[in-house]
Design goal:
The complex is a heterodimer of chains A (74) and B (173). Chain A has 74 residues and is mainly α. Chain A is built from four helices and no strands. By secondary structure, chain B is an all-alpha fold. Chain B has one domain (2-68, 106-172): Double Clp-N motif. Chain B is 66% helix and 0% strand. In chain B, helix 7 (110-125) packs across helix 8. The longest helix of chain B has 16 residues, at 7-22. The mean pLDDT of chain B is 89. Classes of the chains: A mainly alpha (74), B mainly alpha (173).
Amino acid sequence: MASPTSDVTTAAAADDPAVGLRAIRALRELADRLEVLQVANARSRGWSWQQVADALGVTRQAAHKKHAGNRKDD
Amino acid sequence: MFERFTDEARHVVAAAQEEARALRADEVAPVHLLLALAAGGGPAGRLMQAAGLDADRLRSAARRSGDPLDADALAALGVDLDQVRAAAEAAFGPGALDPPPAGGHIGFAGGSRRSLEEALRSAVRRKDRRLDTGHLLAGVLAVGDPQVGRVLRELGTDPRELRDQAEGDGEVA
């Protein structure tokens, strides 16, 4: 198991697939959870779905489909 | 099936659902039964206390092992999850980074149902009329759930030894 102090490059280029893949999964999960928070915040400040989508670099439909069910946003 | 359960054993089954909810799980897994057994009374609670299996420490081990937001993996990438969490909570409130809560009713996972069946089998085998928390613990350990094994080993307990103790505790005590 990698120590917390290990180099960024150690894991990014880790040749142990177990370490590398676990890190990818954790990053994706982290990004997903942050995305939920950020989108909810943007919407509660009155951002349109189009504005949210532009910022995320996705289509309006994709942003709406992924997030419209969350919180009080339907 | 529940009519043979002692009050403590019934309580453990109900408490396991609360443990699952508190860990934001979408079903009641064997590890949640294990947590409820550690926090509850009866033979299993005494046995686990004697083995140094504190409910709070088990809970945090279960939280770590069940969450795909793996702090060690992120640390290896140079991402400090505690820092990210602190920033998210400062902006969005406590628990902001926790997984979304499971909506509504949460059911028992297959492994948990098998645990209850094994508990019943253990009681029958020992010719006990009542099913107590000791039988429940033996049942949980009989199904060999990998998360239960990981969490126990993390706290320095060999799942097989604990199972032997749970199976044998009627005669020893």
